[in-house]
Every structure is written in C-alpha cells, then in structure tokens.
Design goal:
about 140 residues; mainly alpha; globular
C-alpha cells in the first residue's frame, strides 16, 4: 500500500500529461528564464515522487488527506485549464489558489512531520516559477 501511495501522484500526473497536448508550449512566445520543454516532465516526476513520499510520512489524518488530495486535483486540472482549454488568465487564478493550498498543506505536514513539510518546499518554489511563466505567457501572447 505504501508503494502505491508514493507513486500515485506520479502515475496520475503521467496519465494527465499523456492526455493533454503540451506541444502548444513550443508555440508560445516565452519569457526570459523559460526552460526547454524537456525539463518539465523531469521536474514534475521528481515533484510528484516527493509528494507521495511526503504524504507517506504523515499520519494521514482527515485534515491532511483533504488538503493533500484537494491540491492534487487543483494541480492536475491546471494543465487541462492552461493547455487544453487555453484559459491562460483563469489558469493564473487557478495556480494562485493551488499555491495557497500547497502552503496550507505544508503547514499541516509541518505540524505532523517536519521532513514531510520540507520535502514540499521544491514543489512550492516550482509553483511560483510556474506562476511567473503562466503570467508572462498570458501577457506576451
């Protein structure tokens, strides 16, 4: 069961990634600091594994389960909103809500297991970077 919960975010993220058309990213005028497309699946794979490991380190209380799965839903839906539906402005709002949810999740993880919280810091940093990219792409395209 532990192995499933560790790999659950990665498996779902991979499925979402295969279902959506991320090739449109190459068509956008990109801001400075925009990484090449190949970097995204590498970074997200690492982040999804860290999510699963972190969640596994927690007590999985009702509050932790709720915020963990809620932020995962927001995470997965962002790709659909941005790439498939092409709602760039709405995806900025959605991503901002995701950042708030992840901040709450880190706080709850911290009270339960400090290491679980610390393992989520790269995720939060990447989300702020994604917000920069999302906002820049919205403004210059």
């Amino acid at each position: 069961m532990k192995i499933i919960s560790i790999f659950f975010p990665l498996i779902l993220g991979t499925i979402i990634g295969l279902l959506i058309n991320t090739s449109v990213y190459s068509d956008y005028i990109k801001p400075p600091l925009a990484p090449p497309s190949i970097l995204f699946p590498i970074v997200w794979s690492i982040l999804y594994l860290l999510m699963g490991i972190s969640y596994n380190l927690t007590s999985k209380s009702k509050d932790i389960k709720l915020i963990y799965y809620l932020q995962l839903v927001f995470n997965y839906l962002w790709s659909i909103i941005f790439f498939t539906l092409d709602l760039k402005l709405f995806s900025i709002i959605w991503l901002t809500i995701l950042i708030i949810l992840v901040t709450i999740m880190i706080s709850k993880f911290y009270k339960d297991n400090k290491l679980a919280a610390y393992l989520q810091i790269p995720y939060l940093i990447w989300l702020f970077f994604a917000l920069y990219l999302n906002t820049s792409i919205y403004l210059i395209n």
